[in-house]
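Hey, resending since the last one bounced:
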Amino acid sequence: MSGKHSIKIRQIEAYAFRIEFGEAFVPLLTDEPEPIGGGTGPSPEQVLIAAVSNCLCASLAFALGKYRQEGGGVSAEAIGRVARNAEGRLRLVGIEVDIALGAPAESLDRLDRVLGQFEQFCTVSESVKAGVPVAVSVRDGLGNRLK
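The structure tokens again:
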């Protein structure tokens, strides 16, 4: 599934934004938690944590299927740790993802192969781990490039 993935994002008010993923999907409302924002949706940090966790779960489900293993469903809980960097800016400094299979390990005869490979299939977590380059430009209301 190579190629480009695009979204559109528009400020609703203060720190609340509407993110559109295309006509086939319901838009997502994000917001900063109180007291900075209104807490009307998940924060950008939570969306990133969800993306990493979702991709890891999907990759595990893919690996289970590849080895014809019935995992009994995949679920996860995740925590993102935020701390200040050397400049005093808040940064997401770690994500811990606790994934659970519904089936007992002894019922999965190829589990070692599954566990040895599934993380490599996860586009999001492997990209975040490696540090994804981000190119940023800013334009004014007339389309003039400011940055």
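The beta strands are 8-13, 16-20, 28-30, 74-84, 90-101.

Sorry for the duplicate.
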